[in-house]
Amino acid sequence: MRFTMRNYKSAVAAFLFAASSLALPAAAEDDVAAQLMEELSQAETEQAANRLERQVRQEWAKSGSATMDLLLKRGQDALDVDDIDAAMEHLTALTDHAPDFAEGWHSLALVYYRAEMFGPAADALERTLALNPHHFGALRGLGAIFEQVDKPALAYDAYSRVLTLRPHDSDVIDALERLERRVNGQTL
């Protein structure tokens, strides 16, 4: 499927929305994910960042419904074994029944990306970021899509924003190094 201009504009709009709201949420005592995100943004080592990222992702995976959590797990399990059709079926059902669950949209975006359906992937990432502007995985996904469609400046910006939320991400650091020359030119 082609990455259409409408989808490109949607992805850019989502990216700009996320970029404009990168201040971390207030860490309320009852908001575990917000507290973990604050700790993650200040992680001093890669090991600490990895541990905190796992905890954040566990919090984000809680929809509040056992049925929706099961659909998410089934979709992610299908994606893990590269069963794109089953993953798409489970995650589409999840987003249909729980349209305000950001992690459902993020997982669906991963399925679309794996299927090389970049327009729908960008749309799902837009929805993810609209629901959770601090979703570093969605920003990382936008970076990957922008790289795929040869928009290195947008990819570089998305990846840079990931590091403000999730430092020590070696894949993102590698991507930034790979894009540096294309975006900022060659230094003398």
Automatic annotation (TrEMBL):
Domain of life: Bacteria
PROSITE patterns: TPR (PS50005)
TPR repeat placement: 102-135, 136-169
Alphabetized Gene3D superfamilies for the sequence: Tetratricopeptide repeat domain
InterPro entries per record: TPR-like_helical_dom_sf, TPR_rpt
Chain segments annotated as transmembrane: none
Annotated signal peptide: 1-28
Coiled-coil segments on the chain, per record: 26-53
Keywords in alphabetical order: Coiled coil, Signal, TPR repeat
Protein name: Uncharacterized protein
Organism of provenance: Marivita hallyeonensis
